[in-house]
Amino acid sequence: MADRIRIYEVGPRDGLQNEPGVIPMAGRLELIRALVAAGLRDIEVGSFVSPRWVPQMAGSAEILAGIDLGNDVNFAALIPNMKGWEAYAEAIAPLPRIPGEVAVFISASEGFSKANLNCSVAESLDRIAPVVDAARAAGVTVRGYVSCVTDCPFDGPTDPALVARAVAGLRALAPMQVSLGDTIGRGTPDTVSAMLDAVLAVCGPGNLAGHFHDTTGLALANVEASIAAGLRTFDSSVAGLGGCPYAPGAPGNLDTGALVDRCMALGFETGVDRAALDRAADIARGLRAAA
Ligand code: HMG
Ligand code: MG
């Protein structure tokens, strides 16, 4: 049997958070349903951040309440602090099952940490520590993100040692998969490989994921460099939606369709139904056009 690549779909969160307009709830739910129908089993559906910072993700509690939980899909949500955790816990209390993982996020670089979270890297770790504890106590799995793993829009190239330190900082809180974010899509196979060399000294490849934005068209090459280093989980976004509102120059995430095609060409299985994914991509493009 062919090796498997796990595709972690982030379009309904990382994609839609970057649209200029707020997408209506019905559209967000229609997109999530289409992604489930396409066979995706890890889907980040929203975030519990300040609606003043990211108005596009307001209403994520209604998203969790509106999705069909009668399946084995991991419907993940991003949480920045205890206020976000409390809102999340309240949202999931009446649901028939825990919808999925919560993702906590920090930056490798100080400039982006300040722009995205309004605090230093060390302060952000202090802020998420109680979120990790509360989630684990509630039986919720935690995922971590480190942003700006090769380049920062404010601080320039990122020292790989800072990324290794950030990954170790997250994993000192609890065992978790850490997704390595090339937030502005400036990474190259060389800088990604150098970064992974440093990170693999503190964390095995099975606990890492690659999260590449496709600003310069190198996201797939960066996936291949990561596969060579042993990674088997990659984040991507249907129709290449995405970016980050606090990272100037971060347009699209790696397109899920392109990732599926490259995985197949390399001999990996993904479990994704390509025709159904195209239908989801049409919905995503329709939502973007209407935003
Ligand atoms: P702050 O302004 O320093 O926070 O923001 P604060 O504690 O002073 O609170 C300010 C206001 O926000 C208060 O409301 C709080 O109650 C409220 P007010 O009294 O003024 O009316 N507030 C909240 N409301 C709802 N939910 C919350 C929450 N927390 C505070 N959880 C804060 C700090 C962390 C809140 C803010 O910086 C924030 O929300 N940042 C999130 C930014 C974001 O979502 N960025 C995109 C996601 S990260 C990303 O895309 C990268 C990734 O894809 C990987 C990669 O590509 O690198 C993951
Ligand atoms: Mg991102």
Structure characteristics:
binds 3-hydroxy-3-methylglutaryl-coenzyme A, alpha/beta, eight-stranded parallel sheet, binds magnesium ion, two-stranded antiparallel ribbon
The share of residues in helices is 40-55%
| Top CATH class | Alpha Beta
List low-pLDDT spans: none
Order of helices and strands: EHHEHEHEHHEEEHEHEHEHH
- Estimate what percentage of residues fall within beta strands: 15-25%
Q: Radius of gyration, Cα only, in angstroms?
A: 17 Å
Report the biggest beta sheet as strand number plus sense, adding barrel if it closes: 8 strands, parallel
Oligomer: single chain
Number of domains: 1
Lateral strand order in the biggest sheet: 1-10-9-8-5-4-3-2
Task: State the helix count.
Answer: 11
Structural class: alpha/beta
- Give the distance, in angstroms, between the N- and C-terminal Cα atoms: 42 Å
Q: Summary?
A:
This protein has 291 residues and is α/β, with parallel strands linked by helices.
Report on the structure:
This protein is of the alpha/beta class and 291 residues long. It has one domain: TIM Barrel. It has eleven helices and ten strands. The protein has helices spanning 11-15, 25-37, 60-66, 82-92, 110-117, 121-137, 160-173, 189-199, 219-228, 256-265, 274-290, and strands at residues 6-9, 42-47, 74-78, 102-107, 142-147, 151-152, 156-157, 177-182, 208-212, 233-236. It has an eight-stranded parallel beta sheet. Strands 6-7 form a two-stranded antiparallel sheet. The longest helix is centred in the middle third of the chain and has 17 residues, at 121-137. The N and C termini lie far apart (42 Å). The model has no long low-confidence stretch (mean pLDDT 95).
